[in-house]
Amino acid sequence: MCAGLWALGLWSYRDGIGRLAAQGRTDLNLYMAHLQGLLAKYEPLPELLATNPRLIDFMRAPGGQESIQALNRYLETINRISDATDTYLMDAEGLTIAASNWQAERPFVGRNFSFRPYFRDAMGGQLGRYFALGTTSKQRGYYFAYPVHEKGEILGAVVVKIDISEAERRWAKTDRIFLVTDPDGVVFVSTQPEQRFRTLFPLDEAARQRIAHSNRYLDATLSPMGLEILKRLPEGQLVRLESEQGWRKHRRYLLQSRAMPNAGWQVHELSDTREVIRDTLKLTTLAAALAATAALIAALLLQHQRARRVHTILTERARASLERINLELEERVTTRTAELTRTNRRLLAEVDERLRAEQALREAQQALIQSAKLATLGQMSAGINHELNQPLAAIRTYADNGRLLLAKGRTQEVELNLEQILALTERMAKIGSQLKLFARKTSGDLIALPLAPVVEGAARIAAPILDRCGGTLESRVPSELSVKANDVLLQQVLVNLLGNACQAIDGQTERRIRIEAHRTQDWVITTVEDTGPGIPESDLNLIFEPFFTTKDAGEGLGLGLAISARIAAEMGGSLATVPLESGACFELRLPAADIHPSQAT
Ligand code: ADP
């Protein structure tokens, strides 16, 4: 882009310079035409005057003061009419004999200008032209001189000096400078006043001496105007000129020059390139701005496109990752669901298993209760058998003996025997009354019943086992204590506790079992304590678990305490161990019942 701008700038600059040069050419032509017109206006005047017989006569015979004054006046009139600066007449020696400015402060009359080249030219018989700074007037002027002839003899010269400052005033422009230089390059006309009597280029010493000698520019310094050629172009020269105007020390101009051979002049025009540079800069800046805008728009479009691409990619990625996450989620959900289904199935299976186990346990418990009932019945029947057989055998013996004694007439002894039989039947009746306890319904219904008979019955059932281990049972159950319970089940619990106690004391040195009961407000607490080895701390939490047993196979199923505890709970009470120093103690807590004495049977 920079190269393009550079090329555009260069093209614009060259084009601008081309246009500037074309304009310059036109201006220069016009200016030269003006100068030529100016000179042409005065050029024939000296010749015209020189042919005037009055002047020739005067030259021949100047006459007195009056004649001179008359000529002076004549020249003054001519000068005024022609609008020249000065018009004067010189003799063959170069002495001014009459002049239009004869009345001026410093008139030319009487002064000798033979050193002027125009005089020499005129005396040589030709039109003399010269530009110089007037030695008397100190004013610039262009001199035309023409010889005054008579019969082939040159008597003197008529000189017309014109002011050419008009060629400066009317042509002064800000962006153009018109210069006229002499063959040495000294600027004697310039639309820029400070450039007057300066040189285009430095003068060499010889030229300087020559000019000084001719007194052409009096004591003007003729310093160079600080022109530097930068580039030569077909249209002219690109120069840099020292400037005293404005803030810039240098200005660039296009220098175009043309010769005016008649006058021996070089006419120059310096066209300021500022406008060209400004236009070039404007164009380049505009182009740069356009290019920058285009680049910006392109960049924005690109950015937009890129952003869209990025957006699309991101959206695509987001969609893909969402899909992936979704898939993963679905997979996880599926896996999790499968796991949960499996777990659920397993749990359901476990629940089923538990339910089945519970059912089995319940059935087992029922069966065990049943078998425990049967066992109790068995034990009971053994006990009844034992208890009834003995009195029965005794009764038979007493009856047999009574019959023998009756036959022998020993009636007194028969009566004794009969008394014994009565006592024995009473005892049997007592056993019967005990059996009544079992005759009550065993459906599990809870009734208020006295505790002592149940304990007694249980003790009776457990008696054979107690006997086998050689232990003693001490029972301290107050007769007034009643509980709300099921007698069979309660007895079963007690038989069970006594059975365990018997097994515990078996083999111990001290073999005692104690059953005690007392009431605390709403509860009746029965404790069964033994002198056995006690229950290890570690087993305390386990003994009520079903099938927990420390006994050998065949001796225990580990169900006694579990069933007993459940029975106690079902009766609204509880069964627990009581810590003891030695031995074991179980505490059966049952709801207390208040029974009227008449109800106790
Ligand atoms: P089983 O008597 O068939 O083992 P139980 O449920 O009646 O089942 O008793 C569980 C366990 O409790 C027994 O194996 C025993 O270790 C312990 N146990 C029960 N009663 C006593 C006791 N009076 N003294 C010491 N240990 C006992």
TrEMBL record:
Main location: membrane
Subcellular location: Cell inner membrane
Keyword Transmembrane: yes
Residue ranges occupied by any Histidine kinase domain in the UniProt entry: 383-594
NAD as UniProt keyword: no
Molecular function in Gene Ontology: ATP binding; phosphorelay sensor kinase activity
InterPro entries assigned: dCache_1, HATPase_C_sf, HATPase_dom, His_kinase_dom, HisK_dim/P_dom, HisK_dim/P_sf, Sensor-like_sf, Sig_transdc_His_kin-like_C
Coiled coil: none
Membrane topology: Multi-pass membrane protein
Domain of life: Bacteria
PANTHER family named in the record: C4-DICARBOXYLATE TRANSPORT SENSOR PROTEIN DCTB, SENSOR HISTIDINE KINASE
UniProt name for this protein: C4-dicarboxylate transport sensor protein DctB
Lineage: Bacteria, Pseudomonadati, Pseudomonadota, Gammaproteobacteria, Chromatiales
